[in-house]
Amino acid sequence: MQAFGMTVNDLSVAYGDRTAVKNVSLDFAPKQVTALIGPSGCGKSTFLRSLNRMNDLIAGCTVTGEIWIRDQNINSPETDVVSLRQRIGMVWQRPNPFHKSIYENIAFGPRYHGTKNKKQLDEIVEESLRKAALWDETKDRLHNSALALSGGQQQRLCIARSIAVKPDIILMDEPASALDPVSTAKIEELIAELKQDYCIVIVTHNMHQAARVSDKTAFFLSGEVVEYDLTPTIFTNPQRRETNDYITGRFG
Amino acid sequence: MKAKTVDKIATSVIIAIAALIVLVLAGLLGYILVRGLGHVSFHFLTSAPETIRKGGGIGPQLFNSIFLLVLTMIITIPIGLGAGIYMSEYAPSNKLTNAIRLVVEVLSSVPSIIVGLFGLLVLVNLFGFGFSLFSGALALTVFNLPLMVRITEQGLKGVPREQKEASLALGLSKWKTITSVMLPIAMPVILTGTILAAGRVFGEAAALLFTAGMSSPRLDFSDWNPLSPFSPLNPFRPAETLAVHIWKINSEGLAPDAGEIAAGASAVLVITVLLFNFAARWLGRYMYRKFTAIK
């Protein structure tokens, strides 16, 4: 399968008069994990939610700039938002499985996108759960409610759900911050696995996590990208004083 | 005064008020049931009323009440769901939609006798529907519809935003997201609200006096052709409901046992409305469990 990345040009986001993200340009390479770090309110989550046009849902929110995937600017008004979102998966801070069975959580998307064959759906469900390292724990109770799973399992189910529709890119908004350390470790392992196929953009508050899972890191401050570089460089040899202050815990 | 004493006084006052409410309710229910239940029998529930002789029943009235409720719900539920979905998910938030919301609120608080008179002038006379179940159902729709709209809107607004976003992020259309993800979650709220609204429709009298009418043709319960004038299923026949019947025999009943009939009918009405309430709570809890916990 061919891997795709994403290029963001001069993206700004405003809620009414207040600018939350200012002229951000970033390049997300395929088969790489990019971490977005920064103090609360620095605009990193807002930026992430703009990448799959989720901010369209919020009244008074305007997003300007260009977001390129596969030679298409997805931030242009002509883009079909519904079909675009199939190419960009998303995982939220708190696990949000549908109030359906484990099987239905995964099969729901592919079925809507045209896979009606029961056998094909079964295969997609198994493959997605295997990729999310959840198959062994759930294969005997696929038709039980997803809400009976633990928080960590629910989060892996949400990841499985998003890869079931075969996206190019997966956006993760602090995917482990509501989980215990063991579940967090599993999610991080999973991210390392998934990066072989997808371009992953992850927002995180946990700097150790950013250092562990990502290839590149962007440091956000007050809606702007202060520094964007290879993760080891950011954490060992940052070029800007603000970055250094933040990663050494002097603020944020 | 010490904070602890104030707290104690406030707590006892609140408990006293709560106890008073429970007592009044229990007394009212007890009085109606004790007076009426002795008169309720299978014969009473199934036979036709008598005008001047003893031993009449409430069969047709009970049937009319249920049939009218079904008709009202058939009209209200699709329109109410549709309007509620529109108000919650599609309507932009501006002056016009705020005005619509206000009108909906006002509509549901119009006194029911006014709705009845409106029904008489517009539905019965102007549109020529006559005194009929259909006129009655439309009159009831006037204050049932706002409730349905509000219930649906609140149910959908109560769905966590992440659920909606998760579905949209998979590339599902807005409509599919509403029908497959949001409505199932909102369903317990919507269903409970609908049943409670149904209880109100079932007990309504004032709006029906001038719309569904105060008499029933002699119903032939073996004739199920909805077009025949004596068929119970004909929606264009006049139909006296249970609540209207209670009002009528209490004010102008000629039968020697009018008092007991009114008491018995009241007990039946109260029990039915109570059943609606219990069913609503049970169903709401059952569906909540079904949608959230292990199957």
UniProtKB/TrEMBL annotation, chain A:
One of its GO terms (biological process) is phosphate ion transmembrane transport. One of its GO terms (molecular function) is phosphate transmembrane transporter activity. The keyword Transmembrane helix does not apply. It comes from the Bacteria. One of its GO terms (cellular component) is membrane. SUPFAM superfamilies: P-loop containing nucleoside triphosphate hydrolases (SSF52540). Residues 6-247 form the ABC transporter domain. InterPro entries: AAA+_ATPase, ABC_transporter-like_ATP-bd, ABC_transporter-like_CS, P-loop_NTPase, PstB-like. It holds the Pfam family ABC_tran. Keywords: ATP-binding, Nucleotide-binding, Transport. PANTHER family: ABC TRANSPORTER I FAMILY MEMBER 17. This is Phosphate ABC transporter ATP-binding protein. It comes from Cohnella terricola. The lineage of its organism: Bacteria, Bacillati, Bacillota, Bacilli, Bacillales.
From TrEMBL, chain B:
Residues 62-280 form the ABC transmembrane type-1 domain. PANTHER family: ABC TRANSPORTER PERMEASE PROTEIN YQGI-RELATED, PHOSPHATE TRANSPORT SYSTEM PERMEASE PROTEIN PSTA-RELATED. Keywords: Cell membrane, Membrane, Transmembrane, Transmembrane helix, Transport. Its main location: membrane. The chain crosses the membrane at residues 12-34, 66-87, 99-120, 126-147, 181-202, 261-280. One of its GO terms (cellular component) is plasma membrane. Belongs to the binding-protein-dependent transport system permease family. CysTW subfamily. It is a multi-pass membrane protein. This is Phosphate transport system permease protein PstA. Coiled coil: none annotated. GO terms for biological process: phosphate ion transmembrane transport. It is found in: Cell membrane. Pfam families: BPD_transp_1 (PF00528). One of its GO terms (molecular function) is phosphate transmembrane transporter activity. PROSITE patterns: ABC_TM1. InterPro entries: MetI-like, MetI-like_sf, Phosphate_PstA. It comes from the Bacteria. It comes from Cohnella terricola.
